[in-house]
Amino acid sequence: MRITRSVAGRRLRAGYVATTGLTVTALLLTGCGGSSDSDKGADADGNITLTVADFGQFGYKEAGLFEKYHELNPKITVKEDTTAEEKNYYPKLLQQLNSGSGLADVQGIEVGRIKEIVDTKADSFADLSKTIGVDEWVSWKAKQATAPSGAVIGAGTDIGPMSLCYNRELFEKAGLPTDRAEVAKLTEGGWEDFLALGEQYKKKAPEGTYFMDSASAMFNAVVSSSPEQYYDASGKPIYEKSASVEKGWKLAAEAASKKLTQGLAQFEDQWQAALRKSTVATVVCPAWMAGQISTYAGDANKGKWDITSAPGNTSANWGGSFLAVPKSGKNVAEATKLVKWLTAPEQQAAVFKAIGVFPSNQGAYDLPDVKNATLPYFNDAPIGQIYADGAKSIPEAVLGPKDGVIKDSISTQINNMEQRGTSPDDAWDAAVRTIEKAIG
């Protein structure tokens, strides 16, 4: 998942995280040298323009990093070409890779696509394994972008460690604890405890409110907290017999049947309205979700929300991306330097401060702008600590080339259980038919 650029999003994310200031000195320490003789894209004066193609909101503009890079490297100018929706960006990237033309010097790749790119297009990208310091990343992040040859084709940008966002005001009205430590204790046994908490909420729930926004979000969190998801290590789809999928589906069906969920498609207009009107008490919360909630719940709900750790003792990852350098570029050496700089701890901390997406580079976790970060909108929740703790307990998962298609197909049918009352058996059969058509 990548936050979509919007006027509202940019407005509300200004000063998103309360932290200590990131110093210019820290940024300068990771600056790069001038242009390389091996690059063919320089003009007569040695000036180079690097293009970065990405999608949604990577945060570099908001953090002022491209301008800072130009200050450190006066002969390098960076231009960003952003596509609002990743679903429109990715087909274009594949077309460019197949034709061998039109690629930027740096290309963003979403985590749901990285396995397909590693399996089918790894030879199109520069090997970053000797450049980016693979050991700096959470281990599972680096492996996601590693080809069988050992080549690392993408440097990790952000990750989405899971937490739980909850509406303190609604919890209080329903007679539930509002302290984040107490809420965490009530769900420490896992997602089964989470549903039990939902049943407690329902007994005294304020009229017209629901315990959760979407059972499909809970399903995704359950599956994402397991090493075994939709594929096995050989690349074979196993979603029909995956233990985590079975567990997530069962819990989602239970939530739908007990009317614990409002059955909203996340990020759509009705979901945004529910946040604004405070009709949902909890939202499964990967790191980037807090920005969505604060944007759509609006200033009137500031301080009414809080964040605690995700249910259970194992966290999950939802979202994240990579920066890759196409071999066909005219500025491969300089593009590689830029990618190394953008994904260094100081720059990832600056992006976190600007828009709240959490670093994949572990070196950022001890920097003040991450370690001491709190979120004023969410009752000053210590998000730097919550997300870092979550990141450390995320299991290494096997990814598949069509993970996104499988997940979206199942989510659609969970939504049908919630909104249309479709039986779990009929909904599952419909999901399987859709998936089989899509992946063959």
From TrEMBL:
Name the residues that span the membrane.
Answer: none
**Which InterPro entries does the annotation name?**
Bact_solute-bd_prot1, SBP
Pfam families with a match to the protein in the record: SBP_bac_8 (PF13416)
- Tell me which PANTHER family the record gives: ARABINOSE-BINDING PROTEIN-RELATED, SUGAR BINDING SECRETED PROTEIN
Task: Identify this protein by name.
Answer: Carbohydrate ABC transporter substrate-binding protein
